[in-house]
């Protein structure tokens, strides 16, 4: 058993007869009253996100997880198929367990957290950023660059991202996987 001081992003806990992954947390110490931890929890079975507040010192049931590197192979319906990079074992994971699934391209390596009790995958952690090619975007209008103007672009995975006006079809861009936003254009 752990307590609220052990809470960190990505930690998997047993809460309300389900397993939840901590997505966000904030330790709050108000001027009056006891301290508490405000959390945002995501169910690993349903994908539902709930807000919860734990009082300071509250006992939490931590799920022991093991992380392994997997390579993304292909998508089939709602299932994404991955291969372990060490022993080549393949697993299928539901799209609800993957944050930023629309940014996954073939061959991308991700970290998968697996419950050590039953061997079930709990969550998929994307790399901090991915490099994708722009497959479609409208040409930028000359002279319309005074105020950080953006335009929608479709990347090779089918995701739509707002990019600066100077980005053209065929450009490779770096995309933040957590927020799904443009970071920079990559040099050839």
Which term fits the overall shape? flat
Number of helices: 0
Question: Would you state the CATH class of the largest domain?
Answer: Mainly Beta
Class per helix and strand makeup: mainly beta
- CATH fold-level name of the largest domain: SH3 type barrels
Largest sheet: 6 strands, antiparallel
State which percent range the strand residues make up.
over 45%
- Residues in helices, as a percent range: under 10%
H-E string: EEEEEEEEEEEEEEEE
Low-confidence stretches: none
Question: Can you lay out the helices and strands and say which pair or pack?
Answer:
Layout: E1 2-3, E2 12-15, E3 18-28, E4 36-43, E5 49-55, E6 59-62, E7 65-76, E8 79-84, E9 90-94, E10 109-115, E11 121-125, E12 129-137, E13 150-155, E14 160-164, E15 172-176, E16 181-185
Antiparallel strand pairs: 1-6, 2-3, 2-6, 3-4, 4-5, 7-8, 7-10, 8-9, 10-11, 12-13, 12-15, 13-14, 15-16
């Amino acid at each position: 058993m752990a307590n609220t001081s052990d809470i960190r992003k990505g930690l998997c806990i047993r809460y309300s007869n389900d397993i939840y992954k901590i997505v966000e947390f904030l330790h709050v110490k108000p001027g009056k009253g006891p301290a508490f931890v405000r959390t945002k929890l995501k169910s690993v079975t349903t994908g539902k996100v709930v807000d919860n507040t734990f009082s300071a010192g509250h006992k939490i049931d931590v799920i022991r997880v093991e992380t392994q590197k997997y390579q993304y192979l292909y998508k089939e319906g709602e299932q994404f198929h991955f291969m372990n990079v060490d022993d080549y074992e393949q697993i299928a994971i539901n799209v609800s367990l993957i944050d930023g699934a629309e940014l996954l391209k073939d061959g991308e390596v991700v970290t998968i957290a697996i419950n050590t009790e039953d061997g079930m995958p709990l969550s998929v952690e994307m790399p901090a950023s991915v490099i994708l090619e722009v497959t479609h975007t409208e040409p930028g209008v000359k002279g319309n660059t005074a105020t950080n103007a953006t335009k929608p672009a479709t990347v090779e995975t089918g995701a739509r991202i707002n990019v600066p006006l100077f980005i053209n079809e065929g450009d490779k861009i770096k995309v933040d996987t957590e927020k799904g936003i443009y970071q920079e254009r990559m040099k050839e």
